Amino acid sequence: MESATIDQIIDKHRGEASSLIQIMLDIQGEHHWLPREALDRVSERLQVPMSRIKHIATFYKAFSLVPKGRHEVHVCMGTACHVRGAQRVLDTVQDLTGISPGETDPEMKFSLETVNCLGCCALGPVVELDGKHHGNIDPGQIATVLENCEQGKSQGPTTR
């Protein structure tokens, strides 16, 4: 990430240390992770110790210090989803993407995570793809949902 891009993000927030989390979110939004060089620049420009930045980056699950794929897949493994077949859904996602939870595929297309609850238990099993929930999802629908995501379409079973 170029320092000019980082500087633009910082300037958008008037270079205020009180906007640190939002600045980090904006950087993450641009590149799907927080590169070390970007955090060094933020620390320098905002006069915030790197230890504080690292604390925030590791405390909040929204941040990643390792590269993530363009599309983030979260499979709910909570009780309601589990009893409705979440493991089969997860197995299908793993088979189609070639990655396990916590991994990103080599092409940087997908990152996969499991979560304990997405808050829509009545719709289980649920997959969240790029922030969009797909409820009552059947393993047979996963390929279509992933393909539509890559093509920029939003078709498939969704809840919001």
Query: Which spans of ≥5 residues are poorly predicted at pLDDT below 50?
Result: 155-160
Strand order of the largest sheet: 2-1-3-4
**How many beta strands in the DSSP annotation?**
4
Number of helices: 7
CATH topology of the largest domain: the name is Glutaredoxin
Beta content: 5-15%
Describe this structure in words.
With 160 residues, the chain is α+β, with helices and mostly antiparallel strands. It folds into 2 domains: 3-59, no CATH class; 71-150, Glutaredoxin. It is built from 7 helices and 4 strands; from the N terminus they run ααααβααβββα. The chain has helices at 3-12, 20-31, 36-46, 50-59, 79-83, 86-97, 142-150; strands at residues 71-76, 110-115, 127-129, 132-134. A hairpin with a 2-residue loop joins strand 3 (127-129) and strand 4 (132-134). The protein is elongated, with a radius of gyration of 18 Å. The relative contact order is 0.12. Residues 155-160 have low confidence and may be disordered.
In short:
By secondary structure, the chain is of the alpha+beta class. Helices cover 43% and strands 11% of the residues.
Task: Based on the model shown, name its key terms.
4-stranded mixed beta sheet, 160 residues, disordered C terminus, single chain, Glutaredoxin, 43% helix, alpha+beta
Q: How are the SSEs ordered, and which strands pair?
A:
Elements (H helix, E strand, L loop, with lengths): L2 H10 L7 H12 L4 H11 L3 H10 L11 E6 L2 H5 L2 H12 L12 E6 L11 E3 L2 E3 L7 H9 L10
Parallel strand pairs: 1-2
Antiparallel strand pairs: 1-3, 3-4
Helix pairs in contact: 1-3, 2-3
